[in-house]
Fold this sequence. Notes:
Structural class: mainly alpha
Number of strands: 0
Strand content: under 5%
CATH topology of the largest domain: Rna Polymerase Sigma Factor, Chain: A
CATH class of the largest domain: Mainly Alpha
Radius of gyration: 32 Å
Amino acid sequence: MEVNRNLPDTELVSNLRSGQRMDESIKAIYRSYFDSLGWYVMNNSGSRQDAEDVFQEVVVSFIDLVQKNKFRGESTVKTFLFSLNRHTWLNELKRRGRAMAREEKYERGQERVELDTSHLIADREGKAEVARLVGELGETCRKILLLFYYENLSMKEILERMHYETEQVVRNKKYKCLKQLEERLNGNPALKQTLKNLLHG
């Protein structure tokens, strides 16, 4: 039977502040508070491992605050630990949310690159022919089509790059370039499909 199942707050804080009986005090904190603090984490999108990691961080922070005289006993140890636990876990969830959003954005970008690359790898002769035809349309058309379809730039961004008067001028140019390309492709259905894949992949 455990004799020191619960240490009174004053004794616990005194031990931590002085560095005496640290092992016993940390075990007392674990026995008294882990279940309820861990339950909070596990019921808010966390795993058992998350609960253990957060608890460990909370205990280390608490000891540090006690030893720096920043825990003044204005609340109970239990209330203070709950507050630390909640704050630590919510911060971790926010960090993960941001990381997940970055990861998803990165993955979407990767998928796009892989998709474009797979189109380029397949049917290389067709791609070379389309590239040759785009080149034949002249430097202006080549630039507009590449900026729009390959770099995914908006009309406004293309306008800034190519120094036209208005976005409408850029739109008209792009339309004319596509029409010219279409005319050249009309006699070759396979190449036309290749172009469609390239532009809408």
